[in-house]
Amino acid sequence: MGRLLRTNAFRLAALYFALFAASVLALLAFIYFSTADFIERQTEATIDAEITGLREQYGDRGLPGLLEIVHARSTALHNNSSTLYLVTDAALNPIAGNLSSWPRARQIRPGWIGFPVEVRTRQGDVVESDALASVFVLHDGFRLLVGRDLRDASAFRSRITHTLGWSALLTLALGVAGGLFMTRNMLRRVEAVNRTSERIIRGDLTQRVPLTGSGDEFDQLAGNLNAMLDRIERLMLGMRQVTDNIAHDLRTPLSRLRARLEVTLLERPDAGRYGEALRETITEADRLLVTFNALLNIAEAEAGSRRETMGVVDLAEIARSVAELYEPVADEKGQSLTVDSDAVLPVQGDRHLLSQAIANLLDNALKYAPAGAIALHAHGADGTARLEVADSGPGVPADRREAVFDRFVRLEGSRSTPGNGLGLSLVRAVARLHGGEARLEDNNPGLKAVLTLPMADSRSLPATRNAA
Ligand SMILES: Nc1ncnc2c1ncn2[C@@H]1O[C@H](COP(=O)(O)OP(=O)(O)OP(=O)(O)O)[C@@H](O)[C@H]1O
Ligand SMILES: [Mg+2]
């Protein structure tokens, strides 16, 4: 409850309630006062009408006529009358009417007096009541008093007070109950978000904010939070995979390096031997760094953490610029590198990773097909971009064409050439990251490496492109 009082929702509800209560009370007060005023005017109008009538009679028929009428009206209404009459002489001695003596009156406002009067109820009891009256002075100091006892008016007024009081109470109670209910309801939803966040902070990233299915703004908020959490979880998972893979793949070469140093230390100290061991170690460390970078690239592509930053790129243009980089190497080795590509070949992708993959394929062709032509094709058809690197070298036997995509797999005949056996792994990881595939085919003779990627809409290509 204490916490409830401190919440914004509650304060807001309380403010609304205060405004609500104030307007309800103002409205009820207005009803009360205007009704009371109406009743009073009504009473006064009745008395006025009565006096006007009697004055006319007095004018027409003189004092005897007036006395006769007053007498008649007083007795006719005697038993249960709310109209009071009194005619007195100059000394205030009563002559006619249903009041026994001149009342102990006080002036209420000009022309109107109020006084207590004893009246008989329907049950025959005599009770004291307030009366309102007006006095008309006749000739010779005679006076005519006409009034009404306010029993009915005050009964009516008290009934109104009663009714309005209860309505006010009921409305306010409903307001309080409704406000509390709404606040509680709102708080419960916020509370759900809070509870989930707390669990996530404590380390359980699988927690999600429950939805009520109403589709209101709280559900939208929860949905967005959940989507955000999904994305964070995916990224975390990807990063964990990257670190796991790298740790796993580098453990063996690092242990080997360490073992070699240990063995060297076990031998008799010899400066020449130590120098050689250090040089070997440095070479190995360099190789490790290369491997490390290659693994990092593969792991990153596999984790898909770059997927969110991918835009539409031109695969044909990337292929041309990578080929340009490798032309000098081909020239040097006496190989020819020809490029044949569509003008533009839009794909949704990461420029850096795609360049890397094409470079790995060209690197293999240059490395394993020592002489002859290397052809790079990049064409699009039926919504698929197809990139091929074909050489006329020894090729890869059909039963090994899948295995060479695994990490660290190299064919027997390739041991003499430098390499880690990671190039094709990256090609495949990049292809899959882009929703495509990488495979090897027979080039009769030689090898044809094929990379297929889904094509993107060319209209989403940036208008100007700069060469890599
Ligand atoms: N064009 C090719 N012709 C013949 N064999 C190939 C060709 N490309 C790849 N291979 C075989 O597939 C193996 C794996 O290739 P991959 O590119 O994955 O590794 P690598 O070239 O040995 O090393 P890295 O690319 O990491 O420097 C190679 O060792 C080689 O035996
Ligand atoms: Mg390679």
Please describe what this structure looks like.
There is one protein chain. The protein has 468 residues and is an alpha+beta fold. It is 54% helix and 18% strand. The chain folds into 3 domains: 2-159, Beta-Lactamase; 208-305; 310-460, Histidine kinase-like ATPase, C-terminal domain (Heat Shock Protein 90, 2-Layer Sandwich), CATH 3.30.565. A hairpin with a 2-residue loop joins strand 3 and strand 4. Helix 4 (217-266) runs antiparallel to helix 5 (271-303). The two termini are 65 Å apart. The mean pLDDT is 88. The protein binds adenosine-5'-triphosphate (ATP) and magnesium ion. Residues 294, 360, 364-365, 368-369, 391, 393-396, 404, 409-411, 414, 419-425, 447 line the site of adenosine-5'-triphosphate. Magnesium ion is lined by residues 360, 363-364, 419, 423.
In brief:
The protein is α+β, with helices and mostly antiparallel strands.
Question: Order of strands in the sheet with the most strands?
Answer: 2-1-6-5-4-3
The gross shape turns out to be: rod-shaped
Mean pLDDT figure: 88
Number of helices: 8
Radius of gyration: 53 Å
Gap between N and C termini? 65 Å
Bound molecules: adenosine-5'-triphosphate, magnesium ion
Strand content: 15-25%
Count of individual domains: 3
CATH topology of the largest domain: Beta-Lactamase
**How would you characterize the largest beta sheet?**
6 strands, antiparallel
